[in-house]
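Researcher: Can you fold this with S-adenosylmethionine in place?
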Amino acid sequence: MTISELKQIFKKELSAIYSESESTELYSIFCSTILGLDKFQQRQSSERIITQNECENFKKIIGELKTGKPFQQILGETEFYGLQFFVDKNVLIPRPETEELLELAISEIKKLELNHSVFKILDIGTGSGIIPVVLKKHFPDAIVSAIDYSEKALETAKKNANFHHVEINFIHQDYLNENLSEVYDIIISNPPYIGIEEETEIANSVKEFEPKMALFSPTSNALIFYEKIAEDCKIHLSEKGMVFLEINQKLGEETKDLFSEVLSEVHLVKDLSGNDRFVFGKK
Ligand SMILES: C[S@@+](CC[C@H](N)C(=O)[O-])C[C@H]1O[C@@H](n2cnc3c(N)ncnc32)[C@H](O)[C@@H]1O
């Protein structure tokens, strides 16, 4: 079978669940990993014959993709903020909105004037560890800690920190039911923020393949993590310290209000799609 024939079969097999452009992109991604060909080479080698082994690999991947499994989990890795991260079934696949959160946080932290030079950062609900790894890369002198309740997620996060040669203090903790022990200059979080009643709006592939603990609030109160973070800002955020949060787009004003009580300035920011997506502020 030639590469161009393979492409036709790949796209036909996935046509029931993926659009034309999605299956073209997926084909290109797996062509690059299995055959080692970039997009240009794929076009140039359309008549190349693929081996039996390569064909078997494609068959396996088509089968997995047909189940709705995210391609990042099949690959075992993804790109985030220009860096490579390992992902698996125990962690949320990083979303582009979280890149926006980090972009915002990095530019604001650069402007921050603290009385001490070494500042402490805490990420709550770290998942694959993308947030602390990117922050430590940008602020190598900062002391960066990250909490998660999932031991398996922490294993993946540690693997990512080791891969990027950054030192992060990972803490296994049920944030909602345990107390913080330190004072931080930066608190950042993308906690589970989907309310139980919103579950029907979430794609089956997300619900089936990504950890429920990463997606859904554990109670009917979708703001439960934000309420605890706002409370923690009173004692565990330093003077002039900053908070950066990714939020449920339907609860922008409510989330902002929680922090207006504890911070001297609070901002509600939209994401690139125009949805209320971030709350940040300064004590
Ligand atoms: C929305 S995911 C965010 C993951 C990662 N920070 C990201 O942005 O891709 C939320 C994370 O919070 C963790 N989590 C859920 N409940 C928690 C709790 N009670 N205490 C600490 N972490 C929790 C989940 O395991 C998950 O990794």
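Model: Folded with S-adenosylmethionine in place. The mean pLDDT is 94.
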